[in-house]
Specification:
The complex is a heterotrimer of chains A (about 280), B (about 425) and C (about 300). Chain A is built from 13 helices and no strands. Chain A has about 280 residues and is mostly helical. In chain A, helix 8 runs antiparallel to helix 9. Chain A is globular. The radius of gyration of chain C is 25 Å and the shape is flat. The two termini of chain C are about 45 Å apart. The longest helix of chain C has about 40 residues. Classes of the chains: A mainly alpha (about 280), B alpha/beta (about 425), C mainly alpha (about 300). Chains in contact: A-B, A-C, B-C. Chains A and C meet through helix 1, helix 4, helix 6, helix 7 and helix 10 of A and helix 1, helix 3, helix 4, helix 5 and helix 6 of C. Chain C: Belongs to the binding-protein-dependent transport system permease family. Chain C: It is a multi-pass membrane protein. Chain C: This is Sugar ABC transporter permease. Chain C: It comes from Mesorhizobium huakuii.
């Protein structure tokens, strides 16, 4: 509720004074939605029709472009790869980060700050610059062309952010919680997973959502680690496809639309959590 | 339990279940039928034709499957180099020629084929030159074509506009003016978004008639450099054609330019002979042929730039060497050369083929007067290559932002850091 | 006595459990992030022949980095990244602040607009880059619209023109992430006590005045976070350039960035010839690491000092 909603002026002139502001907001809304509208609408047209009929609805809602894009880009396969990698990375990140954040935020160890600092510095570290050595490492471990390799690398990159979020949320829980559980004879593992974690559900959802988005969308690491068509994730497959079929606009738009669909659905379901998560996490993606 | 928790558990369960199912599926995938040889290529344009050729091979050689995987040209070299470095390369890799082959040879990624592919002895030196290691002179690939380049033209448009094949440069310009007046794009070409190699070919088409057939040798011995007025004049002539290039030239890339020619919107296309098959495949109804770029004098012998396009090499770390060598043996055979010429319309690396395609016949006649394609054959041996400078600055030169002299000077400065003339 | 022993044994248990709990995360993080980074920094001081580290080179990789032919690429990329940072600060974060303020002044619609503005940020850079490449292509929708409105004639060549290409990429990046400053500033504004604004209004301050004189100083933490994030992201820029212009930073290297140059050196795409220069790549990596670390630390200090405590 904005504190500035109070005013003494009459309602009508207040509304009129707001008009330029609304216009600006409306213009940017159009700037965001129009390209997406064009993307969706063009999927159903042939390249020729796209030229003739830019903004209008398609003459026929033919699914040819979608079918072609799906089969020629082998998108089904790529979707499964992306799902495995994203799911694996999210689960691994949440589990190990929660485990690490718990003692760092709730025990008095003497070395909390140092260890926490070590993790947190990872948020700003430019991992891409270590690509050469990372590549060599992956090769030596036999993790090139492997979904497991991607999962491990992604988890490693997301752990700092996750530890930060979990530590922040866990820190403010009352200390009586664990003490009471210990009195009852619960082991530390049980305390973490059955008592602490359920109390920081917002943290879990923030970590899950932002890790999922970052990993699903990433293009850089599949680019340098994946060479076999069988293991490509969606962003990599799409970039190759676009490079190859650039001039067939309907086909390319269809492939973009297909790859965008899961994210769009997730966004519609989770928009509120995402908005609040950005505010809470300070926008660290 | 909150709603979110319920969703999340369901989602995690679904993901876990999917992962397990997939792991199971991958584990029980049929072991690859006998031997599967992976082959990497950058010619995405020739995908269909290549698969037909290898389907024929597989029919005759049960027990070997050829899995062709394509990577678009702009990324091919670094994808291959990275994959080989990681031990995840293919069994057979399409290799660029001359200088661009050497890093792979030097790094020990390829096996020499002199002994394992005896058919190579039946190929001419012009073809084999691009597949040799510079230091040991051994052959590291099976060449597939010796393309040349020229001016592709749409025969129907020429006939409709009453234009004959130009005999001099003046006639050429006049023809362009006529086409422009009729609302037809005279020349389709473009090099945006990493496809500036097409413009480099344009210079290769125009060049020999300006700097002459002996220029390559002069550059090799150090008698001439890129800053020689003859080379600058060649660059300038290419830039002079700007009025006849498509609208929005700076934003047009190779693929779009080919579409303009194939779709009949442009009358001419400066290209290499590898366009033959892909033009036919994309528009079987297109009536086109090729002519050499004219010189100033009507009587001059018209030279064309030629080069060995590349070869197919055997990766040292391949796990399927026996099967891969069989495939390479096939690719060096007369049978493959014939199919190659028929399906793709390129001048094959072997000369013992019957030429059925009139365009191909025309191209092979043109290549009787050829000079090496200067920047590719002579100056891609080390980085920075002449091509990299030319490709990055040529659009600006055509647009008038850089003078041809400056481009030539930049090219010379770049190669001067490593080029040693042969004495 | 018993309490002391129980406390000590609890402490021991905790120390042991802490190590066990932290180990998995630390192991993964150390192996795949810290180790490669450390090795990369170390390796930048050695000569590399192909892919083998051969001998100690001192600073020779670095000196090679700054002279011809690498120097031209390096300074160009450095300049482009800097321009990218300032472009994003002004267009994305500046305009984002304006949007956040406008939404803050209004009761209704904030959630809707925020959701719409932030949506492009959840899309992969491949999708964003490919989409805009098609829209901005000659013959594409933007050309059609501009020509129709009489603002432009002929073919749209902004992406192929070495003078305008970089600006276009920055604009696409701003479109992509506009929602970020909107959300961060909104969160920051909501934390400011309403009484401050009420008092200012009673003193007769207009909305613009309130934004610049009152809200902005109190938004220093948010501004600091955003500036630091933008700094890190713009200097790490790779994806949009790769998808829209190719890894060479076409046209004429006008969209080349430090990370695309790094990629070319590290993975053999410089001149598209397949030749790597690992020594140069690692030196560039170390240089970029220094720029990012020092830059980030300076920024954090700068904004920390200016945070108004209430």
């Amino acid at each position: 509720m904005s504190a500035l909603a109070i005013s003494g002026a009459p309602a009508i002139s207040r509304q009129l004074a707001r008009l330029p502001g609304w216009t600006v907001l409306a213009v940017w809304t159009a700037a965001v939605l129009l390209p997406l509208y064009i993307l969706v609408v063009s999927c159903f047209k042939t390249t020729a029709e796209i030229y003739d009929n830019r903004l209008g609805l398609p003459r026929s809602w033919a699914l040819d472009n979608f079918v072609n894009a799906w089969t020629r880009a082998d998108l089904g396969h790529n979707f499964i790869n992306s799902l495995i990698v994203t799911g694996g990375a999210v689960i691994l990140t949440i589990v190990v980060s929660a485990m690490a954040a718990y003692p760092l935020s709730r025990y008095r160890l003497g070395w909390n700050a140092v260890m926490l600092g070590l993790f947190l510095s990872g948020i700003m570290l430019p991992i891409r610059l270590a690509s050469v050595e990372l590549f060599t490492l992956m090769r030596n471990l036999g993790l090139l062309d492997s979904l497991t390799g991607l999962i491990l690398v992604y988890a490693a990159i997301r752990i700092p952010f996750a530890v930060f979020i979990f530590a922040n949320f866990m820190r403010v829980l009352p200390s009586e919680l664990d003490e009471a559980a210990r009195m009852d004879g619960a082991g530390e593992v049980r305390i973490l997973f059955q008592i602490i974690l359920p109390m920081v559900k917002p943290a879990v959802s923030i970590v899950a959502i932002f890790t999922a988005i970052a990993v699903w969308n990433d293009f850089f690491f599949p680019l340098i680690f994946i060479f076999d068509d069988r293991y490509k994730t969606v962003p990599l497959a799409i970039s190759v496809f676009v490079g190859q079929f650039r001039t067939d606009w309907g086909l390319v738009f269809a492939s973009l639309a297909i790859s965008m669909a899961p994210i769009l659905i997730m966004y519609c379901l989770l928009a509120r959590q995402i908005r609040e998560g950005v505010g809470a996490g300070g926008g660290m993606k | 339990m909150s709603m979110l928790s319920l969703h999340r558990r369901a989602a995690l369960g679904l993901i876990g279940g999917l992962a397990a199912a997939c792991a199971g599926a991958f584990a029980t995938l049929p072991a690859r039928a006998d031997s599967t040889v992976t082959l990497w290529s950058w010619r995405t344009e020739d995908e269909a034709a290549m698969r037909r050729i290898f389907d024929a091979f597989e029919a005759k050689n049960p027990g070997i499957k050829v899995d062709i995987q394509f990577t678009p040209d702009a990324d091919y070299q670094n994808r291959l180099s990275t994959a080989l470095r990681g031990g995840r390369g293919p069994d057979i890799a399409q290799l660029k020629a001359y200088g661009e082959l050497q890093p792979f040879v030097d790094a020990g990624y390829l096996d020499a084929l002199d002994d394992s592919v005896p058919e190579l002895k039946n190929m001419a030196d012009a073809a084999l030159g691009g597949a040799r290691g510079r230091t040991d002179g051994k052959l590291y690939g099976v060449p597939y074509s010796v393309p040349m380049m020229g001016v592709f033209y749409n025969q129907e448009i020429f006939a409709a506009q009453g234009i004959e094949i130009p005999k001099t440069y003046k006639d050429f310009v006049a023809a362009c003016e006529k086409l422009k007046a009729a609302g037809i794009t005279p020349i389709a070409t473009g090099g945006a978004n990493g496809s500036a190699w097409e413009l480099e070919i344009g210079v290769g088409v125009v060049g020999p008639t300006v700097y002459g057939p002996g220029f390559y040798d002069e550059m090799m011995t150090g008698k001439a450099t890129f800053e020689d007025p003859r080379y600058v004049a060649a660059l300038k002539r290419f830039a002079d054609l700007k009025p006849y290039f498509p609208d929005g030239f700076a934003g047009i890339d190779y693929t779009t330019a080919t579409q303009q020619f194939i779709g009949g919107k442009a009358a001419m296309f400066l290209g290499g002979s590898f366009e033959n098959g892909s033009f036919k495949a994309q528009n079987p109804k297109l009536k086109f042929s090729i002519f050499p770029f004219p010189a100033d004098d009507a009587g001059a012998k018209l030279y064309t730039s030629a080069f060995s396009d590349g070869s197919y090499g055997l990766v040292s770390e391949s796990a399927n060497k026996e099967a891969a060598t069989k495939v390479l043996g096939f690719m060096a055979s007369a049978e493959f050369a014939q199919m190659f010429a028929d399906e793709l319309g390129w001048p094959p690396a072997r000369t013992d083929v019957t030429v059925k395609d009139p365009v191909l016949a025309e191209m092979m006649a043109m290549s009787k007067n050829s000079t090496p394609y200067l920047t590719l054959v002579g100056f891609r041996w080390q980085s920075p290559t002449a091509s990299s400078v030319l490709q990055s600055e040529i659009i600006d030169m055509v647009e008038g932002n850089i003078a041809p002299e400056k481009l030539a000077a930049d090219m010379q400065a770049a190669v001067a850091t490593w080029f040693k003339p042969k004495q | 006595m018993t309490t002391l022993r129980r406390t000590t044994s609890l402490k021991h248990t905790q120390q042991r459990m802490a190590v066990l709990f932290i180990l998995p995360a630390l192991a993964v993080y150390a192996l795949f992030v810290l180790y490669p980074l450390a090795m990369s920094l170390w390796g930048s001081f050695f000569v590399w022949k192909g892919l083998r580290m051969v001998e100690f080179a001192g600073l020779s990789n670095f000196s090679r980095l700054f002279v011809f032919p690498s120097g031209a690429r390096l300074y160009g990329a450095l300049w482009h990244n800097t321009a990218w940072f300032f472009g994003i600060m002004v267009f994305q974060n500046g305009i984002g602040l304006l949007f956040a303020w406008l939404l803050f002044l209004r009761d209704k619609g904030a959630a809707f607009f925020q959701s719409v503005f932030f949506f492009p940020a959840v899309l992969s850079p491949v999708i964003v880059g490919a989409l805009w490449r098609l829209l901005l292509a000659p013959g594409g929708v933007v050309e059609w619209a501009l020509n129709g409105l009489g603002l432009h004639q002929g073919s749209l060549t902004v992406l192929g023109n070495s003078h305008t290409a970089l600006a276009m990429l920055i604009a696409v990046d701003a479109w992509n992430w506009m929602g970020l400053p909107v959300l961060i500033y909104t969160a920051g504004l909501r934390q400011i006590s309403g009484q401050i604004f009420e008092a200012a209004k009673l003193d007769g301050a207009g909305n613009a005045r309130m934004l610049f004189s009152i809200a902005l100083p109190l938004l220093m933490p948010a501004l600091g976070t955003l500036t630091t994030l933008s700094f890190i992201n713009t200097f790490n820029q790779f994806d949009i350039v790769y998808v829209m212009q190719g890894v060479q930073g076409n046209p004429s290297y006008s969209t080349d960035t430090l990370v695309t140059y790094f990629y070319r050196l590290a993975f053999g795409a410089e001149g598209a010839v397949g030749i790597t220069d690992i020594g140069l790549a690692l030196a560039l990596g170390t240089l970029l690491f220094l720029i990012l670390s020092i830059g980030t630390l300076l920024m954090l200090r700068f904004f920390d000092r200016r945070t108004v405590q209430l």
